[in-house]
Write a structure and sequence with these properties.
184 residues; alpha+beta; 6 helices; 14% strand
Amino acid sequence: MDMDNEDYNKDQIEQIIRSHGFTDYKWLDPRNDITVAQWVRFRCRFGCGEYGKSGSCPPAVPPIDECREMIREYENAVMLHFTMQSPTFNDKFKYMSELLELEHEIFLAGYYKAFLLQYADCCFCKTCTAGGSREKCSNKIKSRPGVDAMGIDIFKTAGKAGFSIKVLKNRDDMQDRYAILLVD
């Protein structure tokens, strides 16, 4: 694979993305386009009922500075957008599984640094066994942190990418969901 040919790489990756049914996506420069902020982690800690329960959510994820540093190691990322309305466990499982398959296929295409940041908290188990500990996670191979767990300000990042995003007033409203695939 010619890793120096940026257009070839993007075309190949985009073909894989589309083969998984994702058609709404934007390329990002992680160093400039992805905003990592401490307030996001505080929002997890003091606003999410799942805080401390999952092996892929805070506090079982690295500190914000470490998350920011890891993201900045990448030169390319793809932000995937899709919508959901009142998603069930099965809906979430389906999307998470498809995104994980996408990450794996891009990895197998030679992009060995491919790493997915999920659009929500992990849902590979109906009842999480992790109890807030990465070590106790039953699905360590599948489980990935969500964009918010990594401290990503999804509103600012999606806006920089040109996506429209707004605060929902009702849980039954159509939800904009974003996953980020870091890839080099």
